[in-house]
Amino acid sequence: MSYGARKILIAAGMLLTILPFEALASTFNGTLNFTGGAEISATSITFACSVAYTPTCPTGYGNFSTPSTAIQTGDFASYGDQFGLIANLDQTDEPGNTSFLLPNFLIFNSSPSLPSPDLALDLTFIAPGVYGQTDCSATPAPGQTCTLELPGLVTAANPDGLTWFNLSNSAMGSTLSFSIAGVARTISTGETAPFVGTFTAQFNLPYQDLLTALENDPLPASFAASVTTDTAPEAASFFMVGAGILLSVVFRRKLERAGP
After folding, report:
1. N or C: which end of the chain has fewer CB within 10 A?
2. H/E/C letters for each residue in the chain?
3. Whole-prediction pTM
């Protein structure tokens, strides 16, 4: 084998080990915090459209605001003191414990300080609630927890028909929360980073007093939410790195056996 052919084979193997590391880079790294209003039922969330945030909202969207840049971290720092749109949720289209794709779940409006927002959050998963049902109808007391079960939500992936919501009582009222996951996307380049997040709403009543509203009439609430990107490399990237290393070794051994 010629000297030139050897160099090409070695270079090809080394290239496979180098390229994947560039793919590991995440566009967004940090935590984004935002707030807004919503009407919450046991199976859906309709986000409020506040004229203080945006003049109007497209069909299927409400809006949100982000607090100051001081509490946004990492690459999300420039998205403080901004407004944007957030898509409504329904367990028919976004069932618990099931992968789906809701593109542009959260997008930003342009502003004088952020004329070209380049971030979108695509939602891919909502976790079912993790609490039991024993305390759902108990006499209210601090420390109680509840996740409702509804027959209409039963699926193969959610055999108990659990709602998204984790309800808990405190000495001052109750908390409703749910967890999400998805992909933070750079609009201009398509680069992505997975994220996880939590929505939380506080009430001055025990959750037992809210269950009727949740099951029958939407419950108005203010929410606070936080999403954090996960920069762990994908399994495919590990595979590519390993394949590149293996090919490099194979190429070198073949060259050694081939001799000059």
Report:
1. C
2. CCHHHHHHHHHHHHHHHHHHHHHCCCCCCCEEEEEEEEEECCCEEEECCCCCCCCCCCCCEEEEECCCHHHCCHHHHHHCCCEEEEECEECCCCCCCCCCCEEEEEEECCCCCCCCCCEEEEEEEECCCCCCCCCCCCCCCCCCEECCECHHHCCCCCCCCECCCEEEECCCCEEEEEEEEEEEEECCCCCEEEEEEEEEEEECCCHHHCHHHHHHCCEEEEEEEEEEECCCCCHHHHHHHHHHHHHHHHHHHHHHHHCC
3. 0.79
